[in-house]
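Issue 218. Parser rejects a valid record. Input:
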Amino acid sequence: MPETETETETETATRRPRFALLRHHLFAPAASCFLGVLSLATVLCFHFPELLTTREFRAVYTEDFARTLLLVGLAAAFFAGTIAVLRDQHKRMAFIGVGTATAAVLLGGTDVPFDGRVEDTPFSLGLDWFVLALFFSALVFIPLEHAFARRPVPVFRTGWRTDACYFFMSHVLVQLILILVTTSTSLVVSSVKVPGVQAWIDGLPFLVAFLLAVFLADLAQAVLHRCYHRIMVLWRFHAVHHSSPELDWLAGSRVHFVETVLTRSIVLLPLLFLGFSTSVVNAYAVLVGIQAVVAHANLGIRFGFLEYLIVLPRYHHWHHARHLDYWDRNYAIHLPVIDMLMGSFKLPRDGSWPEEYGVLKRETVPVGIIAQHVAPFRGQRTYDEYVR
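Output the parser choked on:
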């Protein structure tokens, strides 16, 4: 997309009144479409659990919980779709919602037979994880961003479809990502043993071990993050993450698949190498998922001194600023002290926020998830062409 068009749309969005975040004429049809599609996906998970659900995340929820959530989703999809049609509000979107909800009911709805036994398969898609993550993320962050927005940005902002595709890909392919990460780290971990250190870490209280894991993982991530910005081959992949002209809870999902696997492998390596327990690693994985969403969220809340202790929206938003002075700053994703140690800490004391987000030269990153995944393998640009 040309730079002028992107900037014009962004500027137009920021001039809209605050209620434009959830425009009343869009709420009912959008809710119906959203819930109808997720309801259909849930029914498919009941029909094909071996293919569409993952063993790791089936342990997170119960069958009764899934059926109850499906019932609520179906009822809300039909209700919101009917209201939208009667009020003549975006009928196409409303019909998609009612249509997918109807398809879900015809395929069995909440009465799909399921005996609770799921055979293990070498690989399966994480459609269940996608449904749960998207539903609860939207349920929590859309209202929060509506109430505490840093600046008024519509839910359906420029680029939301691309970011939704990234969200879908990263969650549905979660098991493939886990397999690739495990494969890339297992050889190193199994070949090097530090029994004294591993025994010491194993004896630490859970909270102490967790905090130490967060520090070490964030240090590894920050070093790699700096490499993403300074090494041209890596920057071609990382530029995709910086290409969104707006930040919100969904924008953080825009990450190239290669970067996802590489980052998770490098971050997980010191935790496995030093022998942190599975419970500590799992707790850290939960923290990563939550903080990645929070750090990108469009939340203008002032957190005071906490901004110097934990990476919160304003801190990470400055890392995404379309501003040359912040191009090499704020690499940490959890702890600002990491950037203080690395000499890359920079946060305005006046509480100000960036005026623009995105890569310095927008034309260097194409539009759309497919083009963005292909571009790093085709580009021959120099570093200066990206940032000067």
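Fixed in the parser; the record now loads. The CA atoms of residues 300 and 324 lie 23 Å apart.
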